[in-house]
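Any chance you'd type out a single protein's sequence alongside its tokenized fold?
>
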Amino acid sequence: MTMAHTLTAPDLAVDVDDVARLLTPDGERVADPDLGRWVADVDHELLRGLYRDMVLVRRIDTEGIALQRQGQVGLWAPCQGQEAVQVGTARALRADDFAFPSYREIGVNFVRGAKPADFVIAWRGEEHSTFNPYDINTAVPQIIIGAQTLHAVGYAMGIQRDGADQVAATYFGDGATSQGDVNEAMIFASSFRAPVVFVCSNNQYAISEPVTVQAKYPIAGRAPGFGIPSVRIDGNDVLASLAAMRWAIDHARSGKGPTYIEAVTYRIGPHTTSDDPTRYRSKDEVERWKQRDPIARVEALLRAEGAFDDEFAKSVASEADELGAQVREAALTATSREPIGVLDHVYEEPHTGLEEQRREFGAYLAGFESSEEASR
């Protein structure tokens, strides 16, 4: 059965208030009959941990944008405004579950254990992947829109065949829901009752295309058509994100099959640093969404309950400064490999086609060396 708040009325894809939430934009706790029981254990310590995670993720994001503007990384996909859904859902995963993120899930990678260099080295063009996926049970961030959903379902089907109880979780944006890959992944997941959670971060724009162009109905309403239960939550509410993910994981882990979460959120920054969002949205719209800031609402709740003081704030800010410095240092001190290294680690085993490419590319590079020697 689909949880409450999955809508079926037309033209509600942009109704950001018709969602399940546990924390209002003002930081007030509210009751929800479906989600509330999944976070009954949340105390001040856990809330402070969620706040800390989101602040640190935002600092990584801020540093990444600055590094790109300074020419230290080639591109950056900002996540400001989306920290709650990323941190909240990732915190619900078990260490041995496997996450399949897109290129914007900085918060997922952070919670899963990515190191400072892991956030910038690939964007700098130094490595194909900056971490071993099996070290943190998280796949390399996917650039091809929606492809990671197929990978997640395949992995989940492998879990079934191994007789294990892990869960796969895949993250994608509202734009990806128009891709065939996502729909094919949902068909397979439903048909085989795969233990996978689909997390759609509806940030209102697929690059420059508003969600209302591609979704006249709430996106969460599509999943039941595939036989997949779904829920539509306030994606700027970290408690709702945690609760929804715990429900989804429990459903999948207990053998009941896939689940789907639509987290209604907003991308405060550009699609990537090569994008100019002022061409397709207004300043007033952005300002309205800034009032729904996911970090500010947790701070407001903690302050209201006497669990947030200046000492805690300074401690988190200091940790964020240190992390930001580590991210910056990782980018500035990166050492580029020799050009031929681009062909390293492409396949696990030797491959004749790759060997041929290495010979051809090696000869091409040697031509530059001959030219330099001749000019001396």
